[in-house]
Design goal:
heterodimer; A: 226 residues; alpha/beta; Phosphorylase Kinase, domain 1; Rossmann fold; 2 domains; 5-stranded antiparallel beta sheet; 6 helices; 35% strand; globular; B: 336 residues; mainly alpha; Nucleotidyltransferase, domain 5; Helix Hairpins; Serum Albumin, Chain A, Domain 1; 3-stranded antiparallel beta sheet; 16 helices; 3 strands; 63% helix; 4% strand; flat
Chain lengths: 226, 336
Amino acid sequence: MPEVKKLSDGIFEVIKDKKHLATKNLDPGKAVYGEKLIPVQETEYRTWDPRRSKLGAMVLKKFNISLKENSKVLYLGAASGTTVSHVSDIVSEGAVYAVEFAPRSMRDLIRLASRRKNIHPILADAGKPDSYSHLVEPVDLIFQDVAQPNQAEIAARNAIRFLKRDGYLLLSIKARSIDTAANPKEVFKAEVKKLEQAFEPGFEILNAKDLKPYHEDHLGVLAKLR
Amino acid sequence: MKINTWFGTLETDIVGEILESRLLSKDIRKLALHSLSLRESRSNLPPEGFDLKAAAIKSGFAESPAEYYFLLHEVTLEAAKLQVSSAITPDQRIIQAVEALDDVNETTNALSERLSEWYGGYFPESGLGGEDLALFIVKYGSRENVSSEDPLYSKARNSMGAKLEPADEALIKDFAESVLSLYERRRQIEVYIENSMEQVAPNLKHIAGPMLGARLISLAGSLKKLAEFPSSTIQVIGASKALFKHLRARAPSPKHGIIYSHPLVNTAPWWLRGKVARAVASKLSLAARIDFYSGEKDPSLIEKLEAKVLQIRTLNPRPPQKKQESGAKLKKRRRK
């Protein structure tokens, strides 16, 4: 019998042969992207590979994700939905607004969303929150993984529009997509500064950590509006 | 204050109380189309932090949060599907064709090599390769069947190759047929790309040729993106490794990316390559822009390009002399 340890609401560590990060499968019997399914008594767990998911890496890096079963999440840069599927597992009674710009990725995301009723797919540019403001309610968490040079600005625009006063922003910053030539440490410093000061009211940075060894040259940031 | 939402239009007072609402019917398709129509809207946006769900319930659109989310889910899904199905534009089709062509080429070469290796054991003197070999095998099978009119007749008679058993012969013949059909597919795709390029990007096709033009669109991601690139980017598309090495370290900047395959660039003498590549890239950029924004064919573009290249050639007829002095200085500096 695999051993299960709860890490936080909806996030578990399942030990079967080795430790796996996992979420409870909202769509039992179905794997989304080839991940392992581990049944434990009545529940089925889906393993979550931190090397394929920045959010997964942040969980293992002890970021306080603070998601509840009925949380509302705005997910910017949903891609094909591998990580979105785990968020959907965690907020089983809530909602995930999954914004993605590339039609090719949206194709996979639609297939995922048609099986999970808490995912609301939105094909739009995360840099233009006005274009989906008629769809998105105030949220408890914005997770952003967009790999754009103006990530800080995108985060700010969305947070001002959609983030609840007590909500959190989780951000994955990819150094290479901001400046291919510069030293990642310098890039991180500059981006964190932008988050704190470049707009009103600014973010308060609660945690900022390198996502090594799961992702190279990525910084995870947890912040809230000041 | 007027507020546009995916389920209708609301009229609210200063504190956000709903005074009046014009709600849409719960028809998923209509709601999805309405939602898509609001994407570009810059007025009557919900204010920051506006609770759409609460408003939907208060105004009577949805009876409960559960119903709200159910409808929202269906509507966003439907809208996204509509967007995805309209995303396959003609330039996207060209990109698929270019990528398919690359795959076909790779496979054809691998299988062709296999065929020549395989058949070589039975008729090593044939001297045939590629499509010719495949045709030969499909026609005759074993070299014993070569007709006396065929120029390879005497070679086939006196070959040192092994005897081809019937079972092997059948296998190799079928294999050769598959290879042949791949060559055919290649031509078919090339014709398709040529025709599509004439319709989608006639100027680009005229300047770059259909294959290079299609490859440029493919590497850029779309005709729109290619049209938005500065010509300096177009000059080095396909040389990203060299470009980033240049940006990160002290490597020289690349003179050309895939536009190297342009006849004007690859026939230029080495000391003019960079200059010619720059001229070609600038006209390619213009061509892509005309194709994307106006679509009219401008035959003067290629003439201007040819004139420009001629000018570059006449102005720089000889390779530049290496400057002894500056070279010496550089060495000195390095020694420090």
